[in-house]
Amino acid sequence: MIADFVSRVIVIDDKKEEVEQLLKLLEKQDIDTSFFTPKDLDKTNRRKIIKNRQLFFIDLSLDDSRSAVENIAQIRRHLKSLTGKMSGHYGIVIWSKHYDESSTTETESFVITLQEKLQEDKNNSEYPTPLFIIGLKKTDYIEQSNYNSLWKDIENELKKNIPASFFLEWVNSIETAKNETISNVYSLLPNYKKQSNDMVFLLTKLALNYIGIKENQVGNYPLHIDAFKSFDEILYAELLNCQKTKNEKIIDINKQFSDNNKLTEVYTNLNKAMFIDENNINQKIVIPGNVYQVLNVKNPFKSDRSDDTENAINAKSIVIEITPPCDSSDSKKRIRARLIGGFFVDANISGISKQIDKLTHGRKDCFYYYLYPVMIPNFSKPQVLILDFRTFGAEEDQNLRSSRKYKILFRAKPKLFADILQKFSSHASRLGLSVINA
């Protein structure tokens, strides 16, 4: 697992002779490796490493004349100089040269202190903090004069760090799925000489299919973005085949979050990541899933629940375009945009259930109320999304394109859009029976 994750390594040690065998092992396994002494790094004047390194090997005592606190400060300084905000994720192996009972405690204490200090840096966003920090016994490898058990030893330590194990396995599965996806698509192309032309043709078709519009409707729409998104779906389908983990420990229903005050922020941003697309939007292009804030006073899609002055909900009126994608690209099936009205309101985290009951007035069958709490672009607080299925109608595209009447907020990602469409369809198709009950 860890060996598949690592392609580039940095080794920082004040005595190169003690890690010669490690450097040889990494070279033998075709892992790009850079070695630095602390003095080397000081001379480079905060040298920046451009390409991501997945693993750092760092001596617990970079300078024997300095205290543990001073060595930790030195490690932090080197990490800041060797990495940047976009340098990716990595792990750290801290070497302990001496390993008796006392030094074991010393190593563990050193690692814990280093983790705490790096957490402080995380809050300041100075550089990406490591995925994991583990301590290993350097003496064992020196005495054996080889590092053959290195990867196994690292993996044994990582078994104690469940999140790190999960993300390593996840990253490896993405890498495998990526390679499979590219190979499978390229294998479909019949002629190498015409490969570039054929690939552009396929990407265009995939993008058109993803957004659900015809070629003559593209105009200035950034269709190239949807080419990436359509390929993401192929990757995701392949990814499901690659994830065959046996690590059951990543799930534990008895675990509690360490800071409940931060939990809402975590939930709102996870929901945003899963359901809100704020990058793939264009005010001039009306497509299914677009969500607009209503700016004009005369709003035929305004829910009567969005104007509850008694509860002072301070609602932001919105509409969502819900034309089925198969109809959206067909001018004979689509005359105007089909909209459902609704609103956003600041989420009352401590009483969210009661808040939704009030917002839906006890008639939840007429409303969509499932997305909460969620961060919405340009809104400062977590929101609850309420759609009122009773406020359904049509609107001219030219009005939706007008930034004076509507402001595009985001596009619902496929799963959210499909869920809204399905629940609205269920609501609209209720027939009922005039049953005479005794």
List segments where confidence is low: pLDDT < 50 over at least 5 consecutive residues.
none
* Beta-strand fraction estimate: 15-25%
Q: Please state the average pLDDT score.
A: 83
Largest sheet: spatial strand order: 6-12-7-8-9-11-10
Helical region count? 15
Structural class: alpha/beta
Rough outline: elongated
- How many beta-strand elements? 12
Largest sheet composition: 7 strands, antiparallel
Radius of gyration: 28 Å
Total domains: 3
Cα distance spanning the termini? 68 Å
Element-by-element helix/strand order: HEHEHEHEHEHHHHHHEEEHEHEEHEH
> Percent of residues in helical segments?
40-55%
Structure in a nutshell:
By secondary structure, the chain is α/β, with parallel strands linked by helices.
Give an overview of the whole structure:
- This protein has 438 residues and is α/β, with parallel strands linked by helices.
- The chain folds into three domains: 2-160, Rossmann fold (3-Layer(aba) Sandwich), CATH 3.40.50.2300; 170-250, no CATH class; 261-428, no CATH class.
- It has helices at 2-5, 20-28, 38-43, 68-82, 101-124, 138-144, 150-158, 162-186, 195-211, 223-242, 260-275, 325-328, 352-360, 397-400, 414-428; strands spanning 8-12, 32-36, 55-59, 91-96, 132-137, 276-277, 290-294, 316-321, 337-346, 367-368, 383-395, 406-412.
- The protein has a seven-stranded antiparallel β-sheet with strand order 6-12-7-8-9-11-10, sandwiched between helices. A five-stranded parallel β-sheet has the order 2-1-3-4-5, sandwiched between helices.
- Helix 5 (101-124) links the parallel strand 4 (91-96) and strand 5.
- Helix 4 packs across helix 5 (101-124) and helix 9 (195-211) packs across helix 10 (223-242).
- The longest helix has 25 residues, at 162-186.
- It is elongated and about 85 Å long.
- The protein starts with a helix and ends in a 10-residue tail after the last helix.
- The relative contact order is 0.08.
- The model has no long low-confidence stretch (mean pLDDT 83).
